[in-house]
Structure formats: structure tokens, C-alpha cells
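# step 3/5: fold
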Amino acid sequence: MEAELKTDVVIRPVRDVDAEALGRVHATCWHETYDHLISTAALEKVSPRRLAELWTHWAQQGSDLRMVAALVDGEIVGFAGSGPARDRDAVRFRELYFIYLLGAFHGTGIGQRLFDAVVEPGEGVYLWVADDNPRAHRFYARNGFALDGATHTEPFLGESLTEVRFVR
């Protein structure tokens, strides 16, 4: 059941000037999402400034990228991005690169709005998600995704993270 927000939510394209705020939100979301999968020591090394630099780089990429931010009362609380497939065996699909939302806004429908802003209805799309992230798995299943059996272990913050691939 979705919690009702008593405020305006705006979903809009990411702007260059958003980089610093996106870096802060990105770092916070990583702490909230991966705290049970990655050590506290590794997570403490996450730099909002470094993530802001990444956002500056991403914002300068081509029009094949769809990147949006969710704002509540003018403050960024989440973001999503999709673009061309990076996996050679999935080139006919679009890839959902990321979707993150501050924990305080889970269950409000903002995550769905972010998803809908970067993935067209009925569009073939895939994504990688942490194997041990049941909340995300349920979200993607509700959106018509299924595991395709692909898995890999990625370096993440100097440790490793096992990811599974969902396809729609």
C-alpha cells in the first residue's frame, strides 16, 4: 500500500546544476541500500563529491540517456537513468542503469514515477540488481520483469557485490 504524500512531487530531467544534490542523495541511497551487503568501512568511503563529479559527467552525455530526478518540496529525493544496453547479449534492449530513492520516500509511488519516466511502456529493458535486495526484486516483478538466470559478481567500493539480471 502506498503512503500518501501531502506535498507536490516533481519528476523532471536531470540538470547540470543538480550534480551536488544528486551526489549527496546518491551517497545516502547507497548507505541505505547496501548497508547489509557492504561493510560500514567501505560505505564510509563513499564521497558525495566524487558522485557529484560522476553526475556532472553523466549530464554531459548524449541524448540516448534518459535521466530524471524526483523532487519533493524542491529537494531531490531520488533519481533514475536508462540508456543503450551495455551487455552484448542484450543489445536489443534498453538498460535501466539505476533507480534510487531515499528510504523515507519508499512506498509513496515516487519510485514508480521515476521508473515510468525513463522506461517506455512495453519497452524491452533489462537491469542488474543486488541479489540480496528483495524490495527491488518485488518492484521489478510488479513491472513485468523476470530473472533471466544471468548473474555476476561486481567490484563495489573495494568489496564485491553479487548481482542478478532482470529482463522485461
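# step 4/5: annotate
The longest helix spans residues 19-34.
# step 5/5: archive (pending)
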